[in-house]
Structures are given as C-alpha cells and as structure tokens.
C-alpha cells in the first residue's frame, strides 16, 4: 500500500466492491433525489458529501433487508443529523455486519491495484491512462457514464478518473510504516480520504497511489463514491 519509498504490506479480510461508482439513477432510487450537477442517469452521482454517502449505505442496507454497518449511539437512521454536526465524530462502523459501507482506504487501493495479481501499473488496470480513465485532458471537462473505459483485472471500472471516491478512513498525510492487518485508518481526524482522481484532475492525481482528503461536509461535482460490503472468513 502506498507509493514511493514509504509503503507497507497490508493483509485484508475478504470483501466485495461494486464494479462501478454509485450512479445517479441508483442514488435517486434510494434517496429520492439527485444532487448531481452533471446530470445523467448512468453518470456517477456527485455533490454528495461523506456524511450523505454514509446515510446512503445504511438506507441501501435497510432496503435490501441487511444489517446497517453505521451507527451513532444506538441510531442507524443517520438522516436526521446535519453533516456539520459534531455528532458525526461519534460514528462507528460494524465491519462484521452484512450491510453496505464505504471501502477503507486499504480496500480501495487493493482493488485498484488488481488485487492478488497486482502489477506496477500507475492506473487501475493499465499504464495508459486514456484506456481506463476520464481525466482532465480527455473528459471534455465533465463526467461520463460509468463503465465506458476499460476495467482493471478485477473487472472494476472507473477506479481512476471520472469521479474521485470517498473512503471510510480519516485522512493523514502519510501512511503508517510497517505491516498492517485490515487497517481502518486513524481513530480521529478532520478530513476523510478520497481516492482515484476525477474528470477534472491531472494524471498524477488519478494514479492508484495518490492520496488526498476532504472535510466530511465537503462536496464537489468531481467527487462521488462506490459501495463495499464485508465477506468475512478468508484473508487476501
């Protein structure tokens, strides 16, 4: 995990990851609204902050009869909490629940790097960014329908480019050194990780190892998310 000289060996518990970012049609079906600025049913939903992505995950879990992963105190109905409220500092994730959640940063990077078949490609599935990503130089300054570029070896689309993606972890500028098992990031922080780069970004920001963060109530037309769920019992 990580790029350059500062990286670490990570072991993960098994999980499932959606093959595409959450689309505007999917988000509208669950939430009853579409906050996106760059409108299109099959484009990634954007202008969704981290808190709203968390709310979506819980609502999707309940819609499918699954156990929600996220709670604040005893409540799993998080829609009543304003995204600027300090109560979000108390959120916990039950990683053993069978519901939907955001991937951890380690899960996101493992998937982007093709999992066990990991290759040194700087982009998810290719050394050629144009084959796998919509970014600043080929996007026409807009998002695009999901799955229009090539997938990586795990058949995941748009891991790089189109929209950057929220992860669960609090953001810190550097990753911990040394081996880690199933890391979930720092226990406190002011920003959350976003990964993958977007239709607005340069090639460096779209690499599988580029890291950045945003405030949990931040939103942008270049920032969305994809869902994940745990599959307990086997390491990768």
Sheet with most strands: strand arrangement: 8-7-5-9
The biggest beta sheet reads: 4 strands, mixed
- Tell me the total number of β-strands: 10
What is the radius of gyration computed over CA atoms, rounded to a whole number of angstroms?
Answer: 16 Å
Order of helices and strands: EEHHEEHHEEEEEE
- Coarse structural class: alpha/beta
Helix proportion? 10-25%
The tally of helices reads 4
* Unreliable sequence segments: none
Q: Determine the mean pLDDT.
A: 94
Shape: globular
Distance between the amino and carboxyl termini: 14 Å
Quaternary organisation: single chain
Strand content: 15-25%
Can you describe this structure?
- The chain has 236 residues and is α/β, with parallel strands linked by helices.
- It has 4 helices and 10 strands; from the N terminus they run E-E-H-H-E-E-H-H-E-E-E-E-E-E.
- It has helices at 24-31, 50-63, 105-112, 129-132, and strands spanning 10-11, 13-17, 70-71, 92-93, 164-170, 180-181, 192-195, 211-214, 223-224, 228-235.
- Strands 8-7-5-9 form a 4-stranded mixed beta sheet. It has a two-stranded parallel ribbon with strand order 1-6. It has a two-stranded antiparallel sheet with strand order 2-10.
Briefly, what is this?
The protein is α/β, with parallel strands linked by helices and 236 residues long. It is 14% helix and 16% strand.
Any descriptors?
4 helices, 10 strands, alpha/beta, 4-stranded mixed beta sheet, two-stranded parallel sheet, 236 residues
SSE inventory with pairings:
Blueprint: E1 10-11, E2 13-17, H1 24-31, H2 50-63, E3 70-71, E4 92-93, H3 105-112, H4 129-132, E5 164-170, E6 180-181, E7 192-195, E8 211-214, E9 223-224, E10 228-235
Parallel strand pairs: 1-6, 5-9
Antiparallel strand pairs: 2-10, 3-4, 5-7, 7-8
